[in-house]
Please model this.
Amino acid sequence: MARGQQKIQSQAKAAEKAAKMKKQAGHSATDQKKAAQKALVHVCVVCKAQMPDPKTYKQHFENKHPKNQMPEDLKAVVA
Model:
């Protein structure tokens, strides 16, 4: 029974580690990159840069491509 306390501590530590691993499942860097890539749905017709929403796309187009004519789908977007 000299190692009884150590056994209890070891089991508690192992359970805590298992809970931490279970909580982090699905939060790896590759999973986060895949989720972020899905959010980038708008693609600039000039430079092929990807943006998450039309407002950002319009701001990008106005700042980066001022001499080019704005696409029809961006003209209706309020900045």
In short: The beta strands are 42-43, 50-51. Residues 4-24 form the longest helix (21 residues). The radius of gyration is 25 Å. The chain has a mean pLDDT of 86.
